[in-house]
Specification:
Layout lengths: L1 E3 L6 H13 L15 H8 L12 E6 L2 E6 L3 E6 L19
């Protein structure tokens, strides 16, 4: 699933909303995001610079609530359920389609 952040939506809020949508659960029923990553630090990574100019580039991936999440440029989230993201033992090299 791909999720585009709203103009005033924080990255941490977007992560919780997107995961709840993928899993079909209420956001409050999910494990706290703070158990995995500091929400304030996550937001700060993608906030504009002190002079107000936007940060460009940047990518962060982590696992939260059975989802593999990638944040690109603080604008887009890509989510994949862990059960859909695995490697066959015969694979020799890691790829974007598996977790090692």
């Amino acid at each position: 699933m791909e999720y585009e952040l709203g103009p005033d939506e924080s990255v941490s809020t977007a992560v919780v909303r997107a995961v709840s949508a993928v899993e079909g659960r209420e956001p409050r029923s999910l494990r706290p995001l703070a158990d995995v990553v500091d929400p304030a630090a996550l937001d700060t990574l993608f906030d504009p610079r002190y002079d107000g100019t936007p940060r460009t580039g940047g990518r962060l991936s982590f696992v939260y609530n059975e989802c593999y999440i990638t944040i690109d440029n603080g604008e887009y989230l890509t989510l994949q359920l862990l059960e859909d993201r695995f490697c066959d033992e015969r694979d020799q090299e890691p790829s974007d389609s598996c977790i090692w």
